[in-house]
Amino acid sequence: MSKDTFEFVIYMLHACADKWKKLPSVVYKKLKESDCIEKLLVPYYDILHTQGTAFVVSDIEEYLVTRGFSI
């Protein structure tokens, strides 16, 4: 994972934590368990990092819900 991708993943982790009012460590665990980092954020970094934060958080929420994870 490149430095830019890593920074993006960390940024999105904190953005989700802020929106969901949860600790970043809790959000990380949920994203890791759902494979969101490996199957959404990292592979689609080139597209996602050009989008607004709210849009990407919404995509993450949709990803989690469709895979049966609660937010």
* Radius of gyration of CA atoms, rounded to a whole number: 11 Å
What gross morphology would you assign?
A: globular
Fraction in beta strands? under 5%
Q: Distance N terminus to C terminus?
A: 26 Å
Major sheet description: none
State the low-pLDDT regions, or none: none
What's the SSE pattern? HHHHH
**Could you report the average pLDDT, rounded to the nearest whole number?**
97
Total DSSP helices: 5
Specify the helix fraction band. Answer: over 70%
Count of DSSP E strands? Answer: 0
Class by alpha and beta content: mainly alpha
Explain what this protein looks like in three dimensions.
- The chain has 71 residues and is mainly alpha-helical.
- The protein is built from 5 helices and no strands.
- The mean pLDDT is 97.
Topology, please?
Blueprint: H1 3-20, H2 24-33, H3 36-41, H4 45-48, H5 53-66
Please outline what is shown here.
By secondary structure, this protein is mainly α. Helices cover 73% and strands 0% of the residues.
Main traits of this protein?
71 residues, mainly alpha, globular
